[in-house]
Design brief:
CATH class: Alpha Beta
Order of helices and strands: HHEHEHEEHEHHHEHHE
Low-confidence stretches: 166-178
Strand content: 25-35%
Helix content: 40-55%
Number of helices: 10
Radius of gyration: 19 Å
CATH superfamily: Vaccinia Virus protein VP39
CATH topology: Rossmann fold
Number of strands: 7
Distance between the termini: 38 Å
Oligomer: single chain
Length: 266
Amino acid sequence: MVKSTYYDNIAHLYDQTRWLTESIAEEVVDFIIKLVNATSETSFLEPGIGTGLNVIPLVKRGYSVTGIDASQAMLEQLKQKLHTIPPNLQLIHADASQLPFADQSFDVVLTVHMIHTVLDWKVFLDEIERVLKPQGYYLNAQWITPPARMEFEGYFRKILAKYLEKSATNQVSQKTTAEINVEEYFNCKGYCSNYVIAREWVVNNTVQELLNCFKSRAYGICWAVSDEIFHQIMVEFEEFCLQNYGSLATELSSKAKFEIWAYKAS
């Protein structure tokens, strides 16, 4: 049985609180299609497909896409975007770190900022390599948070830290995440690697808009405390924002990136 996650609670607002827009996603997919030399027969897998932001353009262009996600609510949001599920899309509600597919099933496996969420990243990468076809591509990607939003989140984290006790569990989690080395893993397997930036774009938000994202608990860090404590944190954070930015209407502008580490068997 798949355990529920905080993504079930934020699925309805996930897309609105991120910075990858549909138009940018279209351009990123154009880049990916060229990167992997996709043909009409190319098959794609995205573990952690979520609301489909990264791959819906592939689906609409007729490519075979399979997606797995632990959050049924996120998958429902994806389905609403498409109205009906086309025959070239398969969606599976399951732990995205476990791949229920035969060996050599896919031409391209895409993960977007999700490896840190799996229990054992080496086992997960073993699974990715197993389901890749010969000469297939593994694309390990992430949206780079715009610096202005990153700074904003940093201020929130400082206030949050005052309400949290650093537990041994948190320390172990941080240590495990820091040790993830996808590059070394695939180099040892004989893969060639290539780092590319698929797209850069400018993101603009007012302080109020970003504050509302946190008030809605749109990010994982917002679920580390109880509702009561979270309310206290947000009161303090809003006061800080007013003092630091001068006005909640202040606009923050900075550049985001969609970066990809591409791995292909040599």
